[in-house]
Design goal:
434 Repressor (Amino-terminal Domain); 6 helices
Amino acid sequence: MPIGDRIKAARIAKSRRIYAYLQAHDKCCLIPKARPENVFNQSHLAEACNTDQARVSEWERGIYEPRISSLRKLAKILKVSMSDLIGED
């Protein structure tokens, strides 16, 4: 297997492990739970946060965390606190 494919496979496996850990420890952010309640799709959130739909999907799956500036926008749009979005008590 070429080195590029091995690196990609390792990154995918790491992302899946991280996501499984976050799910098991209930640390995934509130975005996927809050989004349907407010009738926003990933594209709407991406546009509001000046990013793309793929990045919003990665936030929702716990692969990446939004920057503070994006968290502020998300909290305002979704009508939740920033603490709720990141799962803090």
